[in-house]
Specification:
β1 and β2 (49-56) form a beta hairpin. The strands form 4 sheets. Strands 3-1-2-5-4-6 form a 6-stranded antiparallel sheet, with helices on one face. Strands 9-17-16-12-13-15 form a 6-stranded mixed sheet, with no helix packed on it. A 3-stranded antiparallel sheet has the order 10-11-14, with no helix packed on it. The chain contains 9 helices and 17 strands. The protein folds into 3 domains: 5-136, no CATH class; 154-345, no CATH class; 353-466, no CATH class. It is α+β, with helices and mostly antiparallel strands and 468 residues long. It starts with a helix and ends with a strand. Helix content is 18%, strand content 20%.
């Protein structure tokens, strides 16, 4: 792993979410006594130092390379040792149970008000098990729940609701992609035609309080021109999958801004969300459909980086509205110059630059593929100069993809390292690319990019290797 999962997901907690879904942790596993050493590194996302211990049957080479990937040097044969009074607890990860490999990350801090966030960061987003210190109450919550599986988008057509006009699909039906990037027909409600339960598996969702300006009185609502634009934007968002997390219908409550917020729903936004809407922040990593596949709705893509984060049938109009909101709050584009992207973890994944594989990450002469990090749901073999995969629908099969196999999210079981041979599709898996036939053969001595994920946005192995 080139970045620790705990660093990746602890950062998610402090980020104002635009879309999301909550993930839950695992029971605490028994840990081996064997200690290889520890690695002290700076969590690049949260801005504080952490310490990770390597437990079990790791090799010195493995722990050395893992620590180097976090910009630090391994300390062999010694524990971390952050005092209990100075840390929230430990986050434990099963890296590879079959090979008896575990890590324990000590999370420093002294503010008991942050305990809930730290537990959530470890369990819900990181997929680990949290062991709290006395500072955080010495108990683990929600440790009997499992991490939800990312449900791939599907396209469904339904008869229009009673009283609504015929749809534009076959036989007057309304056709909609059930995905974060999806939108139903303009003037309709996504909740009536899409599957929000599916959508909420595709991002870390949790209830987040609205911005402090949410309840502010707003005389602009008395201006007919403003009120008209306000309602148009609201109707655009209601037709999009945004409603799955940003209305009071969301199962745990809205995630920050929400359409029912009074007196003016727009005031529930924070400045960052407004800047995304204005296209001032790059949100390409969210993924997008072309408008002809998404009922005319579009948003930021690699070809249109400056478009709004929000699906819309009129991008220029959408951006003007959010630019006006930012001006109303005294904000300028340069205020967001340091915010290079809209959902940093996804951007880091999309722009990740791989380094050389370790011996445990390889394609053997008989085609057997091995990796570290545990069982996987997605496996790619790409050209050595290919970009890193992102999220569906438009970023998950980058140019240079040679082979991709997946576990079916409904019934499939994650597959173990060493259980797959290149170009040979095991029973129970599906080949997503190429759509038909076998992938092109590997060329001995040529460099390839091995990319393996526990699930979408949960990378296990991302590295370069030479074919034998």
């Amino acid at each position: 792993m080139k970045r620790t999962r705990i660093a990746f997901f602890m950062f998610l907690l402090s980020f104002p979410m635009v879309h999301g879904c909550s993930c839950n942790g695992f029971p605490i596993p028994p840990l081996p006594e064997k200690l290889l050493g520890h690695c002290i590194y700076k969590n690049a996302f949260a801005g504080f130092q952490e310490c990770k211990e390597y437990l079990g049957d790791w090799t010195v080479s493995e722990v050395t390379n893992d620590c180097k990937s976090n910009g630090s040097e391994i300390v062999l044969d010694k524990k971390c040792g952050i005092p209990e009074a100075e840390r929230y607890g430990d986050c434990i990860f099963i890296v590879d149970k079959g090979k008896n490999k575990y890590t324990r990350v000590e999370i420093p801090g002294k503010d008991p008000n942050k305990c809930a966030s730290m537990i959530r960061g470890c369990q819900f987003f990181g997929g680990g098990s949290f062991v709290p210190t006395p500072l955080c109450g010495g108990k683990v919550e929600n440790n009997n729940e499992t991490l939800p599986v990312f449900q791939q988008p599907d396209y469904t057509c339904k008869a229009p609701k009673a009283g609504e006009a015929p749809g534009k699909g076959p036989n007057g039906q309304v056709c909609t992609w059930s995905t974060i990037s999806g939108a139903t027909e303009e003037g309709r409600n996504f909740e009536d035609y899409g599957n929000c339960d599916k959508v909420r598996t595709q991002r870390p969702y949790r209830a987040v309080p609205p911005n402090s300006t949410a309840s502010d009185a707003d005389a602009r609502l008395n201006d007919p021109a403003y009120a008209k634009e306000n309602e148009w934007v609201k109707s655009q968002l209601r037709a999009a999958a945004c409603v799955c997390c940003h209305t009071t219908n969301a199962p745990k409550g809205p995630a920050n801004w929400f359409l029912e917020s009074k007196p003016n729903w727009v005031n529930s936004f924070g400045p960052l969300g407004l800047a995304m809407g204005a296209g001032w922040i790059n949100t390409v990593s969210f993924g997008a459909y072309p408008p002809d596949q998404n009922n005319g709705f579009t948003r930021a893509t690699p070809d249109n980086v400056g478009h709004s984060a929000f699906p819309t049938t009129d991008d220029a109009r959408m951006r003007r509205f959010f630019e006006a909101e930012l001006a109303h709050r005294g904000k300028k584009r340069e205020d967001f110059a340091s915010q290079k992207d809209g959902y940093t973890p996804l951007d880091i994944q999309l722009t990740y630059v791989p380094t050389s594989c370790t011996p445990e990450q390889a394609i053997a002469s008989d085609g057997t593929i091995t990796w570290i990090g545990g069982p996987a749901r997605y496996l790619y073999v790409l050209a050595g100069d290919a970009s890193s995969p992102g999220v569906p629908p438009n970023l998950d099969i980058p140019k240079g993809t040679l082979w991709r196999v997946d576990v079916d999210w409904k019934s499939g079981t994650p597959f173990a390292s060493g259980s797959i041979k290149y170009g040979v599709l095991p029973e129970g898996l599906k080949q997503t690319f190429p759509k038909e036939g076998k992938p092109e053969p590997l060329v001995s001595g040529k460099t390839y990019y091995l990319y393996v994920l526990k699930d979408i946005a949960f990378p296990l192995t991302r590295c370069l290797l030479k074919a034998p």
